[in-house]
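Job type: complex structure
Entries:
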Amino acid sequence: MFDVSDNVQKINLINRRLFIITAAKIIVFFGLSSRLFSLQVKQNNKYLTLSDKNRIREWKLHPVRGEFKDYYGNVIAGNNEVYQLHVIPEQVEDFRYIALRLKNILNLSEKEFQKIFKKKKEIKSWETIVVSDNLSWEQFSRVNNYLHDLVGVKTVLSISRIYPFNENYTHVLGYVSQANEKDIINNEFIKEKFVPGIRVGKTGLEKAFENTLLGENDIQRFEVNAYGRKISQLEYQKGEKGKTLRLTIDTEVQKLANELLKDQAGSICVMDIYSGDVIAMHSSPSFDPNLFVFGISKDDWQLIRNDPMKPLVNKTLQGNYSPGSTIKPIVALSALENGIINTNFTINCRGHKHPLELYGQTYHCWKKEGHGFMNLRNAMKQSCDIYFYEIARKLGVDKLSETAKKFGLGKEVFGDLFSIEKKGLIPNTQWKKNALGQGWLLGETVITGIGQGYIQTTPIQLCLMIAQIGNGGHKIYPKIVVNEKDHIAPPDKFMPLFVNSKNIKIVQDAMFASTNEVRGTSYKSRIDDKKYQFAGKTGTAQVKKITEKDRELDLKTFEIPYEERDHALYVAYGPYKNPRYATSIIVEHGGSGSSTAAPMAKKLFKLIIDRHALRETIKENKYWDI
Amino acid sequence: MLQSKFSHSLTLFQKIKNYDFILLMSILILGIISIFTMYSTDGGEVLFHTKSHFIKFAIFFPMMIILSFINIKYWHAGSYLFYLIILSLLIWVSLYGVKASGSRRWIDLYFLNLQPSELMKIAVILCLAKFFHRIRTSNTNAFSSILISVTIIIVPTILVITQPDLGTSILISFSGLIILWFSGLKIKYFIYSFLIFITSLPFVISFLKPYQKLRILTFLNPEKDPLGSGYQIIQSKIAVGSGGLTGKGFLKGTQSYLDFLPEKHTDFIFTLFSEEFGFVGSMLLLILYSIIIYRIIRTGLISRSFFSRLFCFGFSFAIFLYVATNMSMVLGLLPIVGSPLPVMSYGGSSLLATMIGFSIVLSASINHNQNIS
C-alpha cells in the first residue's frame, strides 16, 4: 500500500501546481476576452467597413454622353439607341455550338468568330461577352427569332454616338471612339468614369469638352462572394447625362460650305463680325465621323489616311498658309495708321519689263502689262503688287507685324480650346534673329507686303482679321459654343484696334472697290443688290517660287501639276451697308483667288444674309451676350 | 488487494447521484451549438457537414454516457494497452495511411477515416497518468522515470511531426508535458528545457518546411501578402471584428456566407460563430468552455486516486490548450497551426477523442471515492 505521508505530499504538490496552471489559464482566457473586446467592440467600425468592402462591389455603367446642337437646336451629335448582343458563357451549355449558331445568324467573318473565343478566355465565366456592339435591324430581328433556343444569349439596348450630318461637322466636332490607354492617363475624368468600351472624344469639340460631355455613370451595387460572383443587387444609382452644348454654327451654311468645297481641299469659315459667333467652319475634304464610333475598318482608315488631300487635317485651324494678297488690307491700314502714305500716294506699275529692283533682286507684279499709276484705292482694287512692295518697304516689317498681330494674326484664335490649332507666323526682325539667327533683309519686307515669304496665317485668323476690319476696327472674340461655361465678355471686347477710324473706312472703301467696281479683282463675283452686297479681297498664294521660265511660259492653272498650283484665297465681309458677317475662303491649289475662291463667297453671302432674320429671332429670345 | 478493488462497487442510484450533470449538460449545449454553427457554415441548409456532424455527435454523445459507466479502474488497467494500440495505429498511418492535401494522417476504415494522432492526445495523457500514478514523489525526478516518460511523449510526437502535422504534435507533447508538471517534475527542468528550446529555435526553424516558415512570417505581418498567405488571418480578423457587440445574427455572417472565410467548418469555425453572435456570443462560448474545464478540475480535486486526479488535470489542461490555441490563432495572436476547437470543429477523430476524454472524466466523477492500487 501507499505511504500515507507520501500521498499527502503528492496531493499537496499536485494542488500547488494546479493552482499555478489555473492562474495561467485565467490569465490566458482574460487575454482572449480582451482581444475579442478590442476586435469586436473597439475596432468594430474598422472591420465592419472592411467587411462591407469585401462583400460590396460597384459596377459602373456607361454614362450618357451630352449632345451637340447647332444654333437652331438641331441635334448634330446625338445618342442613338443600338442593340448589342451579349453572351454569358456560364449560362451556355455548349459554347462552341452557340458561337457557330451566332456566326450563321449574324454572318460573322471568321476573324470575328475567333474573336469571341479570345474574349471568352479573358473573362470569368459569369461575366459578359459583347459579341456585337451594333446589331443592324436585320441582324437584331433574326437573332430575336432564334432567341428561344439560344440560352445565355441576349440582346441589350445600349446607347451610342451618331452624327446625323455625317461629314459636315467632322472637323468642328471631331469624333468619338473607344478610349485607349493614353486617353485614360491624360484625363482624370475619363479615368474616374471609365468602363470597358466607353467612347471618348478624340479630336475637335468632342475632345475639348470631354469633361462636360461625359456625364455621370449609373452605378449598380452588388453583393459579391469571395470569387467576385454577383449574389444580389443592393442599389441602382442613376447617373446624370452629360451637358448638351449648343454651337453658334448654322447647319445650312455649314452644309453649303461643304458643298462648295466638294472634291477640293480647302477651308471656309464664316463669322458674325460683332459677336464673334462662328457660323460655319468647314475643312475639306472631310470624312464620316460615324465610321469611328464602332472602330473604323482598316480599309476605310487607309483610304482616309492616304488621301493626298489630307482629310484628317483640320485646315481651318491647322493649315498654315501664306495669306497672299489677302494681307493687303492690313498692309494698307498699317501704312495709313503709321502715316507712311495718304490716299493720294501714287506708284507707277510698269509691268514685267520694269520690275522693282532691290539689291539686284527683282520683284514683279502679277500683271504682265502693269497697272500704270496706282493710288491706294486702285492698288487694292486691282491688287497691284508693286504698290504694296513699295509701301511695305517704306513701312518696315516691324510696324506691319504690329498691326497684323493687333488684328489677331500670329496667335490662336480660340485660345486653348482646340489643342491642334496653329499659331501661324507673323515675322519681324526680332523673330528672325531669334528663330533663324540671321538679320532681316529688306527684300523679305517687300514680299511680306504681298503676303508671301515667312508670313503664315490660318483660315480662321484671316476670317477674324477681316471681321475686325468689317466691324470698323473693333476687337472681337470668336466663339463656337453658345453656352460655354462661365462665358464672360473679356474687358477689351470691342476695344478699338485703330488710331484713326478714318483709316479703316479708307481700307473698307478700297475693298468695296475691289469687289464692286469694274476692274476689281473679284468684280465678277459681286452682288449688286444692296441687301447682299459685300466687300472682299482676293489672294493667290504661291506654293513655289516663280522662276523667269515660268513667267515666260505663263501657264494656265490646269496646265500646272496639282501640287504646284497656287492656293486661292478670298476674304470678305458683308453686307457692305450695315455689315454683319465675314468670311474667309481658301482652296488649296485652286488657282487664283478671283476665279476660284471669290465665286464661293457670292453663294455664301446670299445664304447667310437670307438667314440673317431667322438668326436674329433666336438671338433676341434665347441668346444674350453681355 | 482483490477485496479493495471491489469494495467500492456502487449501486446504479449512487452512480447517478455521483454523476456530473453540469458537465454533461455543458457538453450537450456545446454539441447543440456546434450543430447549429455547422448549419450556418453550410449556408443555412442541411448539407453534408451539418448532417455528418450531427450524426457523429448523435453517436458519440450516447457512447460517451455509456463509456462513463465503465469503472475508472478499467481505464487505469487499459491505459498502456490503449496507448500502444494508438501508437501502432500511428506507425501504420506513417506506412499505409491515406494521403490528403500533402500529409499522411488518416487510416481508411471503410466507413470512416480515422486520424490516430487526435486519439493520441488522450492516449498520452492516460498513459502518463498511469505511469506517475505508481511512482512515489521521491522517484519522480529519477533519471529512469524521466527517461521513460519523455520517451512516451517523444515517440508519438515525432511520428506525428513526420506526417507532417505540426499543430497536433505540439498539442500531444504539451498534453504529455503537463502530466510531468503535475507529477512533480522539478520546475528547473522545465526552465532548462524552455531555455534549450529558445536557443535551439533558429536551428529548429531551419528544419521547418517552407510553408511553415511562411506561416510564421505571415503571423508576424499578415498585411504583407493579403491575397496569399495572409488571406486567412486577415479575413478571419475582418469576420470577427465586423461581428461587433451582438453579431450580425444567425445565418447572416456575410464573411462566411460569401465564402471569404477559409476552413470555416474546421479550424476557423469560431470565426463564423463570432461573426454571427458577436462579442456577447463569443464570451458565452468562452464561459461554457471555462465551465467544462472547471468541472473537469473539480472532478480531479474530489478524486481519491492519483490516476483520476492526474488524468483530469491533464485533460482539463488539454481542453484549455485546444481552445486557447484555436482562438488565439483565429484572432491573430498565434501563427496558423492546425488545431481544432473541441466539439465545435468538424472532424470525427477529434470529436471522438474529446468524447472519450469526457467519458473518462465522467467515470472518474462517478467513482471519485474509489482508490486504485
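Summary: Chain A has two domains: 59-246, 315-480+490-622. The radius of gyration of chain A is 36 Å.
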